[in-house]
Design brief:
Elements lengths: L2 E7 L4 E6 L4 E5 H6 L4 H9 L13 E7 L3 E6 L6 E4 H11 L5
Antiparallel strand pairs: 1-2, 2-3, 4-5, 5-6
The site of zinc ion has 7 residues, from α2.
């Protein structure tokens, strides 16, 4: 499962990912940054209230950098800079957002 296109739609503050199986994920920046997968943010989420604590605070995207061929690093302007979002994790977030548990 790999993306064929990743587009940051800044007017809608949404990351649009087209996958090679035809699925299109639309992930709001606020949602993505709330689920930053880095160790520090994961620990913070677990310490507070997991799952229910997903505040969709608006954040600005500064950069998207490829990490090998399996992930992207998303740098948030006013949030965490260290999140490595693997393709698998992005699909999980997409499923979570659609209200399905992966
Ligand atoms: Zn983080």
């Amino acid at each position: 499962m790999r993306p064929t296109a990743i587009t940051a739609d800044k007017t809608r503050a949404t990351l649009v990912i087209t996958w090679d199986d035809g699925l299109i994920s639309e992930l709001p920046f606020g949602f993505l940054s709330a689920w930053c997968p880095c160790a520090v943010c994961t620990e913070q989420r677990n310490a507070s209230n997991p799952r229910s604590s997903t505040p969709a605070t608006p954040v600005e995207l500064e950069a998207i950098q490829p990490v090998g061929s399996y992930a992207i690093n998303i740098v948030w302007k006013d949030g965490c800079r260290y999140g490595i979002y693997t393709w698998e994790y992005l699909r999980e977030l997409d499923a979570m957002q659609r209200g399905m548990r992966p």
